Amino acid sequence: MNRDLVKGILFVTGGAASYGVLATIVRLAYNEGYTTAEATVSQYTIGLLVMGLLLLFSRGKQPPHAGKQTPLQAGKQPDERSLILRLVTGGTAYGLTGVCYYMSVRYLPVSICVILLMQTIWMGIVLDAFLEKKMPPPDKIIAVLIVLAGTLLATNAIGSPAKPDLRGVGWGLAAALTYTISLLVANRVATEMPARKKSFWILTGGTAVVLLFVLLQTAFASPVSDTQTASGFQFSIFMKWGLLLALFGTVLPPLLLNLGMPRAGMGLGSILISIEIPVSVSSAWLLLDEQVLIMQWTGIVLIIAAIILLNFRTLRQELTLLTD
Fold this sequence. Notes:
It is built from 13 helices and no strands. The chain is mainly alpha-helical and about 325 residues long. The two termini are about 15 Å apart.
């Protein structure tokens, strides 16, 4: 195994693990009386500031391939303003993912919230089939069925007599849907734009929708509710939890994944990203004392198996190229 591949594996694993601990940090902030609005605003504004500084200091240091176009692209260069507008607009889905996911954490255990978020696996397949106007191949259909079966086990929907809070389920599925849209934007819009610049504009759209969420909440919520405290916005979250939320939610993951995916390859990289699930469940077990049953771990294994099945063909092609 060459050194570049090892670096890619470490970068992708680190980026996925960063996402994995995020919900646990949010729950810890909730336990101290902070709100969804405070968590999201601190995360996205600090993250946008850091990403902006990274972009500012990285100008003139783009990799050799950045900005290069194929002969087919050379005759039809996209308008940058149009691309930026599309990224900012698409980035609103990224911001909504944070809002919906953190609202789900208010009502459900972290170990269940991350499973609901991973429904983006089958949602992505359905969205691709809709956009391409053709049925997905049999291996993807099988993977969808495995994900659904794993979800029933991982959320303990069968074995537990207690029904999960439907508000949390609704927010969790909404987070999966908006996450699916944000992944579509990241993978299909402005693919020729340098990664840091692209991430900055996506995060700009995400931050804008988070601030809008706070304004709407302030305008329509009662003075004291489950998402708002009587003392108003607590700016202390910026120093206490905001830095951690921004680091693990909006700074480290895109940087590490952008560094790691080209080295690891899409097949292996997509499989490695699934480490987010066991990391999230394990951190909730260690730091929040959440109970995770053997049946739930079985469901998690099934979901990871589905991810491997979805990317097995690409992984095999990449390994063949490495060994030739």
